[in-house]
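Morning run. Coffee first, then this:
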Amino acid sequence: MAPLSLSSEFGYAVAVVGASYLANIYGAIKVVTARKKYDIKYPTLYSTGTTKNDEMYNCAQRAHQNTLEGLPVVNLMMLSSATVYPRAAALFGFTWVVGRFLYIRGYTEGGPEGRRIGGIVSHLGDFPLLITTFCAAWHLLRA
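And here it is:
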């Protein structure tokens, strides 16, 4: 059994992990800003009110939460894929990160309809990562 060796290009994927954390911070800032703007007091996670302000706060919270839900598995798929396909994995991971920024911005500023473009771009990153993860596993199992 040969030891796993990583190319220096694996660093691209590691850099994208850092970028994904920046998307997380961006989402958190949007939630804090919406909390202040719409006067939603702590520790309220989601507003139960029925006004447009309540809806827009919930959109900001949901955009951030949705990003947090996907972030660990996307980073794990990207790093796993990068053991065999470092540039492709980093590119797909970066696509997901760009999609997250667009998703968070669209959802927090345009409501549910505003999230579509960001959602599409995100999936242009995470779906290929799912495929490259299985391909990398196959490659590593056959080595």
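The CA atoms of residues 94 and 112 lie 24 Å apart. Good start to the day.
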